[in-house]
Amino acid sequence: MINDCVRTLLIHSAAPTSFWAEALNTATFLLNRRPCHATGIVTPHHLLLGTPPRYDELRVFGCLCYPNLTPTTPHKLSPRSEACVFLGYPTDHRGYRCYNIATRRIYTSRHVVFVEHVFPFRDTPPRAAPPPPPPVCSDTDTIPAPPSRRERTVPRHGSQHPEAARHDDIGSQR
Questions:
Q1: What are the DSSP E strand ranges found in 29-154?
Q2: Residue 10: which domain range?
Q3: Are 84 and 99 in contact (CB under 8 A)?
Q4: Does 173 fall in a domain?
């Protein structure tokens, strides 16, 4: 059951499989907050902590989000937020884990604005593929030879013919 949930989170968000651990933590978080057959209508969260879970904090895995970065900015004119991807919930306190694709940094913040219908991993083009190899020439293809260094198109001595200029150059080298 948990593998199905992890697979669904990764496929729906189009997140790379390298984020499987984040999807696993989120799947565990979600499964502990839903009722199970063994306990009736009581959730594992309620059995463990004694309080019913809050569902108003749940967000869509892999959606676009903007965490508040004011406490970590170097100066007051720095941007207060950056476009990130929602990756789940931290295990040690309340808040949200947000991943910045450009800097590859994870932020944890309680104050996050979510855009739950936009998925950056889905909308980001994949890494550029290497350029295709040059075409292979067959025996029947003819490749024009590059121009020789000896061939000149502009005469060296005024209006003299290029051949004459070349002969003059050869004669002057002797």
A1: 64-67, 84-88, 96-100, 105-109, 112-115
A2: 2-123
A3: yes
A4: no
Number of domains the chain is built from:
1
Q: Which of 55, 60, 80 is nearest to 70 (CA)?
A: 80
pLDDT in tens, 38-58: 777 888 887 878 888 888 899
Position 33 in a domain: yes
Task: Determine, yes or no, domain membership for 140.
Answer: no
Angstrom distances, CA of residue 84 to CA of 17, 58, 88: 18, 17, 12
The model's pLDDT over 78-117, given as tens digits with 9 standing for 90+, comes to 889 999 999 999 988 889 999 999 999 999 999 999 999 9
pTM exceeds 0.85: no
Token digits for 98?
């947000």
* 130: in domain: no
Report, in angstroms and rounded to the nearest whole number, the Rg of the chain calculated over CA atoms. Answer: 33
- Other Cβ atoms closer than 10 A to 115: 14
Which of 23, 24, 22, 45 minimizes the C-alpha distance to 33?
Answer: 45
